[in-house]
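queue> pop job 88
queue> type: inverse folding (structure -> sequence)
queue> payload:
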């Protein structure tokens, strides 16, 4: 997977805005291991141009997750963690 650098714990993501510039983001070793395991289990490692994270919605199955889909996932897990009001998925403090 060309957008995932396991050894250096980095993943390439599209930036915000219209130009969608890509940038390398450092992730934790635990996150890198989880992504590596997912790539192996999903056979995504054999498809370097495919998205790492995909929609499981029957209508959009296999497509990249949208920004809104990611926001909803973050909100869901914040609520499960007892964080009721999320300022922004990028905020460090709720």
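queue> result:
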């Amino acid at each position: 997977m060309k957008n995932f650098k396991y050894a250096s714990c980095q993943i390439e993501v599209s930036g915000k805005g219209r130009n969608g510039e890509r940038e390398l983001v450092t992730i934790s070793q635990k996150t890198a291991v989880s992504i590596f395991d997912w790539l192996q289990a999903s056979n995504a490692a054999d498809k370097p141009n495919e998205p790492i994270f995909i929609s499981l919605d029957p209508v959009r199955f296999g497509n990249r997750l949208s920004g809104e889909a990611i926001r909803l996932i973050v909100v869901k897990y914040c609520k499960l963690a007892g964080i009721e009001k999320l300022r922004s998925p990028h905020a460090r403090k709720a």
